[in-house]
């Protein structure tokens, strides 16, 4: 058996990296493999497998690694500021890609896309944040804006401010979104009340409230529309969808 030396270690790691790169190009990598591959570029000339395992042990899976706050990433051995920055940059690029897609295509009706977009906007945040998505007449995204930022268990929506902004953007419909960073509970009574108030103010200005979604601490997304707790009359009919699809 060959004696283990620093040079042998370097050769092994180089070979492992090349094999992992090829696995990725062949489409055979797991999510854990892809995390390791990302870390390879962030931490050159070092075995990053222990770091990848430490991240997964700390956060549970790759999704929560990418959505972890920088200060939490820095608490993991082997993760410095530069590595944390690369991880956050990767996550932000993903968010940007979803927003750009939403502005180019009519995403209403694609429930998976909407849920993924909502997760990208608020999952992993340490306090409750309220977002509003403003859509045009073709149900494409005009703007995605943080409406308010609160505490670990509370944030606010302000109906008249939402309506005012919708009118400024010439939006014809709106989607509300917020997160529960420390809870797996669905909508609260207060969430239902404020949703009704926002819907009423928007409707008086011929603007539709299409949905209100909440992202829980485990990344589950709930929809008031799907729970039949939102006025279905504000949702576009199938005829409207068909007409818009032809445009």
Note down, in words, how this protein is organized.
This protein has a five-stranded mixed β-sheet, sandwiched between helices. With 247 residues, the protein is an alpha+beta fold. The protein folds into two domains: 6-92, DNA polymerase, domain 1; 107-245, Cytidine Deaminase, domain 2. Helix 9 (189-203) links the parallel strand 3 and strand 4 (208-215). 28% of the residues are buried. It has ten helices and five strands, in the order H-H-H-H-H-H-H-E-E-H-E-H-E-E-H.
> What CATH architecture label of the largest domain applies?
3-Layer(aba) Sandwich
Radius of gyration: 22 Å
User: Can you identify the CATH superfamily of the largest domain?
Assistant: Cytidine Deaminase, domain 2
Q: How much helical structure, as a percent, in the residues?
A: 40-55%
Provide a count of the helices. 10
Average pLDDT confidence is 87
Shape: elongated
Structural class: alpha+beta
| DSSP E strands, number | 5
* Low-confidence sequence ranges: 237-247
The CATH topology assignment of the largest domain is Cytidine Deaminase, domain 2
CATH class division of the largest domain: Alpha Beta
Strand fraction equals: 5-15%
Q: How many distinct folded domains? A: 2
First-residue to last-residue Cα separation: 70 Å
Condensed summary:
This protein is an alpha+beta fold and 247 residues long. It contains 10 helices and 5 strands, in the order αααααααββαβαββα.
Describe this protein with a few key phrases:
elongated; 247 residues; 14% strand; alpha+beta; disordered C terminus; DNA polymerase, domain 1
């Amino acid at each position: 058996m060959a004696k283990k030396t620093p040079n042998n270690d370097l050769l092994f790691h180089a070979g492992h990296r090349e094999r992992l790169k090829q696995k990725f190009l062949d489409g055979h990598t797991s999510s854990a493999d892809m995390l390791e591959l990302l870390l390879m570029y962030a931490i050159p000339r070092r075995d990053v497998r222990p770091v990848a395992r430490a991240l997964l042990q700390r956060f549970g899976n790759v999704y929560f690694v990418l959505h972890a706050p920088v200060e939490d990433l820095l608490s993991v051995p082997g993760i410095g500021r530069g590595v944390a920055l690369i991880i956050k940059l990767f996550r932000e690029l993903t968010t940007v890609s979803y927003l750009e897609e939403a502005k180019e295509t009519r995403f209403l009706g694609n429930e998976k896309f909407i849920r993924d977009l909502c997760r990208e906007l608020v999952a992993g945040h340490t306090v409750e944040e309220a977002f509003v998505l403003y859509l045009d007449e073709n149900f494409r995204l005009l703007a995605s804006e943080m409406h308010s930022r609160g505490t670990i268990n509370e944030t606010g929506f302000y109906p008249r401010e939402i309506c005012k902004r919708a009118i400024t953007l010439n939006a014809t419909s709106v989607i509300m979104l917020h997160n529960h960073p420390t809870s797996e509970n669905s909508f609260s009574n207060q969430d239902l009340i404020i949703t009704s108030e926002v819907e009423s103010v928007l409707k008086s200005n011929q603007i539709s409230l299409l949905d209100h979604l909440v992202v829980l601490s485990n990344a589950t997304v709930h929809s008031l529309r799907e729970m039949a707790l939102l006025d279905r009359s504000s949702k576009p009919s199938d005829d409207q969808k068909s007409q818009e699809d032809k445009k």
